[in-house]
Automatic annotation (TrEMBL), chain A:
InterPro entries: 4_helix_cytokine-like_core, Somatotropin, Somatotropin/Prolactin, Somatotropin_CS. CDD domains: somatotropin_like. One of its GO terms (cellular component) is extracellular space. It comes from Cynoglossus semilaevis. GO terms for molecular function: growth hormone activity; growth hormone receptor binding. Keywords: Disulfide bond, Hormone, Secreted, Signal. It holds the Pfam family Hormone_1. PANTHER family: SOMATOTROPIN, SOMATOTROPIN,PROLACTIN. Residues 1-17 form the signal peptide. It is found in: Secreted. This is Somatotropin. Belongs to the somatotropin/prolactin family. GO terms for biological process: animal organ development; growth hormone receptor signaling pathway; positive regulation of growth; positive regulation of receptor signaling pathway via JAK-STAT; response to nutrient levels.
From TrEMBL, chain B:
It comes from the Eukaryota. Residues 480-501 are annotated as: Disordered. Keywords: Glycoprotein, Membrane, Receptor, Signal, Transmembrane, Transmembrane helix. Residues 1-24 form the signal peptide. Residues 137-240 form the Fibronectin type-III domain. The keyword Cell membrane does not apply. The keyword Transmembrane applies. This is Growth hormone receptor 2. The chain crosses the membrane at residues 244-266. InterPro entries: FN3_dom, FN3_sf, GHBP, Ig-like_fold. The lineage of its organism: Eukaryota, Metazoa, Chordata, Craniata, Vertebrata. Gene3D superfamilies: Immunoglobulins. Its main location: membrane.
Length: 200, 561
């Protein structure tokens, strides 16, 4: 009897401490992705300002949603995001970060700090991986790790205006996807711990 | 010709100036076709698009203009046709509202403003919903006083608010940044504070008695556009006007304290100086006046120090026996008291004379030198005796009081008088050295021998130690009195054999021999101490320092026996 009580108490303790650890990890992951999002927004804005007005309009006009050519359905509104599980949100986030670790190399703009961004991306991926493992989703993450198919004319050696257009699109997509990951992780964090004071 | 040319140029210029104006007047209301104002989302769940009919007022009726859109969610999706606005807003014209069904974030939207028949494309726009978000303003703005400055002219407040409900921050759907602006209501420009992610912000250094207006707005984190401002709040804190100016009182009190301190310092300056810088005790040698040193009269100093240490009465100023002669005659007590006073007075006078002593012998002073008539120790003694003789003489002449009566105690008493025996004649006469006053007082008794011997107007007195010749004696102890008669003390006289011994001891060296005069014997003879060891000869080395130099202790040792 005493052993059972002791075992139950230890189990309860381990369970109770778990959310605390996850909350802190989530907070760290959210702050990292927020910083990446701000960086992406800054470099896209700088690149946009370096273009001529006419080019800006042209690029914006033809800016299609081809950032992630995967078949994975990702929530694209509040309702669907609310419906998704924490694990699903984590998996999708990890997937997006993976794809950009690959695609970031195709940004040829010389003012873009590729190495710094890559370092941050890999750091974020590790944090998300830890959260996935904490949510017992390690086995599921492997199934989604499909090779990222590049879209469009990534491998083509474009020149001149085409190169500028590709940089514009890549930077815009990078900014968008970072916003996605930030939203998903924030929703997952606020859902896990209501007392995390998400009203801040 | 020239004038005509100028005039034509001016005319043309005027035309050109007028023409744009004219054209402006023609196009005063510019012909502007219907156009999209913009599409805006407040909560990333819905959005609306608005347009303007422009100058085409004939198209202001609903339905004259149509909005079409395409939403491409995935590049792999089949190409879609243009769809018309799902809902034209009824509250206001020229607006199309897209509800949650038709709103997808992170997807591509293309919107076109067309004519009713669709043949005319007036305007189009491309966007993603997350890029057109303009959040609703924060709500429930309030403020709290943090602190007020000492002078109550400035204060700090904490402003707090709540995020707009539409943003659904609790769920984590939107992450917002807030911007606070404030100003004096009378001012034109707003002061903008840095963006914060929290729902509160401190404002420092707001002025009292000024009405401040504060407003807040927000935008998405890394978003492009701000939302609108919420309703402003007004803050006004009056400054406290105290009846008593505290600062003025403090300053006044401080000034008074400083003034009192200064007064105390000035009044007690000497005491403070004594406390802070206590005087250092200077060297003091008894019998030597520091003034002597200051005046530079080192000669006197040297001679003062140059004498035998034993016979330096000036160093024994505190020795009472020099000052006072203890007389044991009752019937003459009153007179004695007077004489005592005289002694003390004279002694003090003699001290002054002693201190003003000038050594004129240029360092040749020696005990062997008969010219050295005035020695300090003798001086100390002499003034007593001559003065005594002077006073007593005047007294004794009246009352025939022999001095010998005064010295009757001499044999039995320990107190004795010193003098310097300058010479002992073979005839038994002892020559003592005296002061000038003695001679002056007893002019009748001047001895020719003394006159011859004295070089410096010093007088000597001959003491006949044998059967005396009364008339020949002049000494300090010798007071001629006609009525003396048989009055005689029991003092003994120096025996001849003692005298001879004295002669032997003294005359051979022809140097002054010191002895103690015990008293005056019969017939005014000196009674000397028989067994007194004569003072050793005072040998002054040739290497004696000049009067101008100090006599150092080592030299002093060499000159002293």
């Amino acid at each position: 009897m005493n052993r059972i009580v002791l075992l139950l108490s230890m189990l309860c303790m381990s369970v109770s401490t778990q959310p605390v650890i996850d909350q802190r990890r989530f907070s760290i992951a959210v702050s990292k992705v927020q910083h990446l999002h701000l960086l992406a927004q800054k470099y896209f804005s700088d690149f946009e300002n370096s273009l001529q007005t006419e080019d800006q309009r042209q690029f914006n006009k033809f800016h299609q949603d081809f950032c992630n050519p995967d078949n994975i359905i990702i929530p694209d509104n509040k309702h669907e995001t609310q419906r998704s599980s924490v694990l699903n949100l984590l998996l999708i986030s990890k997937r997006l970060v993976d794809s950009w670790e690959f695609s970031i190399h195709f940004i040829t703009w010389n003012l873009f700090p590729r190495n710094q961004v890559l370092h941050r991306l890999s750091d974020l991926k590790k944090g998300i991986q830890m959260l996935i493992e904490a949510s017992d989703g390690a086995e599921m993450s492997d199934s989604i790790t499909l090779p990222v198919t590049p879209f469009g004319n990534f491998y083509e050696n474009l020149g001149g205006n085409e190169s500028q257009k590709r940089n514009y699109e890549l930077l815009a997509c990078f900014k968008k996807d970072m916003h996605k990951v930030e939203t998903y992780l924030t929703v997952a964090k606020c859902r896990l711990s209501p007392e995390a004071n998400c009203t801040l | 010709m020239v004038a005509a040319g100028l005039g034509s140029i001016l005319f043309l210029l005027n035309i050109f100036a007028v023409l744009p104006v004219g054209s402006a007047s023609l196009e005063d209301v510019p012909q502007r076709q219907p156009h999209l104002i913009g599409c805006v989302s407040a909560n990333m769940e819905t959005f609306h698009c608005r347009w303007n009919v422009g100058t085409f007022q004939n198209l202001s009726k609903p339905g004259d203009l149509r909005l079409y859109f395409i939403n491409k969610k995935s590049p792999l999706a089949p190409p879609l046709d243009w769809s018309e606005c799902p809902h034209y807003t009824t509250d206001r014209p020229n607006e199309c509202f897209f509800n949650e069904t038709y709103t997808s974030v992170w997807t591509y939207y293309s919107v076109q403003l067309q004519s009713r028949d669709g043949y005319v494309l007036y305007d189009e726009d491309f966007f993603n919903v997350q890029d057109i978000v303009q959040p609703d303003p924060p709500v429930n703005l309030k403020w709290m006083l943090l602190n007020v400055s000492v002078s109550s002219s400035y204060y700090d407040i904490m402003v707090s608010w709540e995020p707009p409900e539409s943003a659904d921050v609790e769920m984590g759907w939107m992450t917002l940044q807030y911007e606070v602006q404030y100003r004096d209501v009378n001012a034109e420009e707003w002061i903008t504070v840095d963006l914060v992610k929290s729902t509160h912000r401190s404002l420092y250094g707001l002025q009292s008695n000024v009405n401040h207006e504060i407003r807040v707005r927000c935008k998405m984190l890394a978003g492009k556009d701000f939302g609108g401002f919420g309703s402003s709040i007004f803050v006004h804190i009056p400054s406290k006007v105290s009846r008593f100016p505290v600062m003025g009182l403090l300053i006044f009190g401080a000034l008074c304290l400083v003034a009192i301190l200064m007064l105390v310092l000035i009044s007690q300056q000497e005491k403070l100086m004594f406390l802070l810088l206590p005087p250092v005790a200077g060297p003091k040698i008894k019998g030597i006046d520091p003034e002597l040193l200051k005046q530079g009269k080192l000669g006197e100093l040297k001679s003062i120090l140059g004498g035998p240490p034993d016979l330096r009465p000036e160093l024994y100023n505190s020795d009472p026996w020099i000052e006072y002669i203890d007389l044991d005659i009752d019937k003459h007590n009153d007179r004695l008291s007077e004489h005592d006073n005289n002694f003390t007075v004279d002694h003090s006078v003699s001290d002054n004379r002693l201190l003003g002593f000038r050594d004129d012998d240029s360092g040749r002073a020696s005990c062997c030198d008969p010219d050295l008539s005035i020695e300090p120790e003798v001086l100390n003694f002499h003034p007593l005796v001559p003065n005594l003789s002077r006073e007593l003489y005047s007294e004794a002449s009246q009352s025939c009081l022999p001095i010998q009566s005064l010295v009757t105690e001499a044999p039995g008493s320990d107190e004795a008088m010193y003098t310097q025996v300058s010479e002992v004649r073979s005839s038994g006469k002892v020559l003592l050295s005296l002061e000038d006053q003695a001679e002056a007082l007893n002019p009748s008794s001047q001895n020719t021998e003394k006159n011859l011997e004295s070089k410096k107007k010093k007088t000597y007195s001959d003491f006949n130690l044998d059967i005396p010749d009364h008339s020949a004696y002049t000494s300090v102890l010798n007071v001629p009195c006609s009525g003396q008669g048989s009055q005689s003390s029991s003092s003994s006289s120096v025996k001849p054999d003692e005298m001879s011994s004295l002669n032997r001891n003294t005359i051979s060296a022809s140097a002054p021999v010191y002895t103690v005069v015990e008293g005056i014997g019969i017939q005014n003879s000196l009674v000397l101490t028989p067994n007194f060891t004569p003072a050793p000869q005072l040998i002054i080395p040739k290497a004696m320092p000049t009067p101008d130099r100090y006599l150092t202790p080592d030299l002093l040792g060499s000159v002293t026996p």
